[in-house]
Amino acid sequence: MANESVHFFDLYSDRPTATKSWSPHTLKVRAILNFKGIPYTQTWTSYPDVKPLATSLGLSPNASGIPYTVPIIIHKSVTSNPNGAIMDSIPIGLHLDKVFPSPPLFPSGDASYALLLAVDKIVSQLEPSIRPFIVPRVVSHLDERGQKYFHETRSRSFGKPLSEVRPTNAETIEALWKESATVAAPLVKMLAGREGKTGPFFEGEKAGFADLLLAARLAFIARYDEELFGRFVGLGGGELGRLYEACRPWLEGQGVDKEWEFPQAA
């Protein structure tokens, strides 16, 4: 089964090929597939098609947050679903690491898994301070149906029209950046490590899931706000920038495009 291609559902954008994949969640799975050298096909998905796709594959809704999301993969090794489907980046990553164990996503075993959980927690705390900068710029790169869906759902989430979300006041911008820098500071220290550490990754020369997760978030920022990205990679001694560049080939690698007949939304 490990010789069978994985089919991967990503979110559509009109961006150039190398940066076409933009969601920090789907980028995690894309990076894993490329890091491990797993052969895969890919389908670019419009937002309104995500729920019909997930339900047609027999996937249960997420326990919290948005009920149905991408990434979704299909692979014959998946026995928990009749269609071989899994949804959500971390369950997907854990499954792929079992089926395709080399190179490992957890080079130090359980310690690497604990590192993943810690990094995921810190990265999630960046959301409130970076979303106002990034999210309003996503919509113009989606397909027409996706734009309508995204504008409606994100305007509702922010409690105001999406066009009014991105801050323009210098004081607000600096306050949000100060919050981001404070949250990111432990990540910079963790990457810097102790005196004598070598390599751009959390565990030195060996990349793992935690690195790919953080790099995916940095890529999301880089896709839509180069100035903000520049401020992040300028923190500390440039540790975040070195991590991003080391992971970049895995973030930008492409599978073979495959058309998919999406079920009609109810």
TrEMBL record:
Domain of life: Eukaryota
Stored InterPro entries: Glutathione-S-Trfase_C_sf (IPR036282), Glutathione_S-Trfase_N (IPR004045), GST_UstS-like_C (IPR054416), Thioredoxin-like_sf (IPR036249)
Ranges for domain GST N-terminal: 22-98
Every Glutathione S-transferase UstS-like C-terminal domain range: 120-250
Name of the protein this chain belongs to: GST N-terminal domain-containing protein
Lineage: Eukaryota, Fungi, Dikarya, Ascomycota, Pezizomycotina
